[in-house]
Amino acid sequence: MKITFLGGTETVTGSKFLLETVSTRVLIDCGLFQGYKWLRERNWQAPPVDIDTLDGIMLTHAHLDHSGYIPVMYQRGYRRPVYTHHATKALCEILLEDSGHIQEEDAKFFNRHKLGKHAHPEPLYDKATAKASLSLFRSVEFGEVVTIGDIHFHLQPAGHILGAASIIAESGGKVVGFSGDVGRQDDILMRPPEPLPRLDMLLLESTYGNRRHDQENPAERLAHIVNRVAASGGVLLIPAFAVGRAQALQHALTGLMDSGKIPRLPIFLDSPMAINVSDIYCHYIDQHRLQTEQCMRMCENVAYTRSVDESKALAGKAFPHIIIAGSGMATGGRILHHFKRLLSNARTTVLFSGYQAGGTRGAKMLEGAESVKIHGQWIPLRARVEMIPALSGHADYVELTQWLGASDLSPSTPIKLIHGDPEALEGLRNHLRAHTDFSVDVASYRSIVTV
User: Fold this and answer.
1) What are the phi and psi torsion angles at 281 (to 5°)?
2) What DSSP assignment string belongs to 313-336?
3) 169 has which bridge partners?
């Protein structure tokens, strides 16, 4: 088998790996590049794979940096199947349409206000195209064998978010593993990732390859932040990924209120997508740690603002409250409108709860930016900016090493590191070389390896 690295290399986003045999070509993941403009510009280039010769797509999970390029492929003529776990399919039905909608709305906004360098900004794809691309999806259970040409695939649970999987591919007596995004042993919502079988090569994510998660209890840290906001009479803005982090925050805040550790502040989930995703988490009750009663309680304690008018009405709230809104890296979504009116207020606190890719607003705010550009306007950043990395859905470098140690891998298994910024890739490479016998290298963009 031959693997060509078409994304998710030397950066976290844009996951795409072309797996080939003499007779079969399958794309593992089909994600958008996010973050730096020079990366995002790759989304507008011609597809990096010949669509006419592609036999199928296997998808690890629903996050847009793994799935968000599928509508582009559909727009360019791709009509073969997309295989993924049934929960991932359900989430993609929400995420992809929302992605198309946001891109349409952003293009309209830039057209209306004459922003940007293009005379007539166009979306990468629209909502209708995203919806049409969902017809390609085929549901797969964990452990079910999918055969595409002469390659046999199966999915195994990877934690991280609902439906997330590692993909195991076998052909000609060789076995390759694609880790996908690997979850944590003690995640608030998800069960631990399943150990890997024996492999001839592993492509391993490295998002937190040079960092350890804070060992402080995330609920205690969250309580401290909420109590400070309540005492100051301010507003807590939480940019949250609609899948996984929004639900974890709902659950954590509900638990803190029920235990009396924080006051019962109003909580607004200002994201139609996250609202729908919360319903999916409650439907797939067998796929995560929460019981039915916990799911119901999590939703009861939160006010859902579905419409634009309901979202705008939050501007009239003078008392302390909490707003959870997309997007998680503050690259788009309703959180930007709350930022525009509240970032210049010193009583506002912004809380990030997941990885912030380089070049995103979230990353810049955490780096200490004095102002933030939103819809062509520079907004002074006087708000307090906080981060709770322990709420992340990614395993850190110690947890990844423990996962590898629990797997049935040969000590000499070659590992190609993917999905990491340069510092994270180098950090994990050095750590694994120092503490294991694995043959570890960092994959480079458009490089090719043979297994």
Assistant:
1) -60, -40
2) HGGG--S-EEEEES-TTSSSSTHH
3) 153, 176
User: Residue 381: in which H helix or E strand, if any?
Assistant: none
Q: Write the DSSP symbol of residue 113.
A: T
As given in the structure block, the two tokens for residue 130 are: 């995203």
The pLDDT tens digits of the residues spanning 316-369 come to 888 999 999 988 889 888 999 999 999 999 999 999 988 787 888 999 999 999
- How many other C-beta atoms are found inside a 10 Å radius of the C-beta of residue 67? 28
Return the bridge partners of 137, or none.
82
The torsion region of residue 345 among left (phi > 0), alpha (psi -120 to 50) and beta comes to beta
Bridge partners, residue 120, by sequence: none
Amino acid identity at 405: G
Once rounded to an integer, what is the mean pLDDT over residues 81-98?
96
Structure tokens at 213: 């998660």
Is residue 180 left, alpha or beta, with left meaning phi > 0 and alpha meaning psi from -120 to 50?
left
With a CB cutoff of 8 Å and minimum separation 6, the contacts of 258 are 297
Token pair of 445 as six digits: 């963009």
Query: Around Cβ 260, how many Cβ atoms within 10 Å?
Result: 8
Nearest to 321 by CA among 394, 244, 234: 234
**Which pTM does this prediction carry?**
0.87
Q: How many Cα atoms within 13 Å fall on the side-chain side of residue 117?
A: 0
At 359, list the tokens.
């070049």
Q: What residues does 380 pair with on adjacent strands? A: 371
**Dist. CA 67–CA 181, nearest whole Å:** 13
Respond yes or no on whether the N-terminal peptide bond of residue 447 is cis (omega within 30° of 0).
no
What is the separation of C-alpha 252 from the centre of its chain, rounded to a whole number of angstroms? 19
Q: What is the pLDDT of residues 93-121, one digit of tens each?
A: 999 998 998 888 878 877 776 555 555 67
Domains delineated in the chain: 2-211+393-450 (3.60.15.10), 218-391 (3.40.50.10890)
Summarize the chain as % helix, strand, coil (round to 5): 35, 20, 45
Radius of gyration of the chain (CA): 21
Contact 284, 221 (CB under 8 A): no
- Nearest CA among 350, 347, 348 for reference residue 365: 350
Q: What are residue 152's DSSP bridge partners?
A: 147, 170
Please give the Cα distance from 35 to 422 (Å, whole number): 14
* Structure-block tokens of residue 224: 């401290």
Q: How far is CA 95 from CA 64, 131, 222, 237, in A?
A: 7, 10, 27, 22
The DSSP line for 160-173 is SSTT-EEEEEEETT
Q: What is the DSSP letter of 208?
A: B
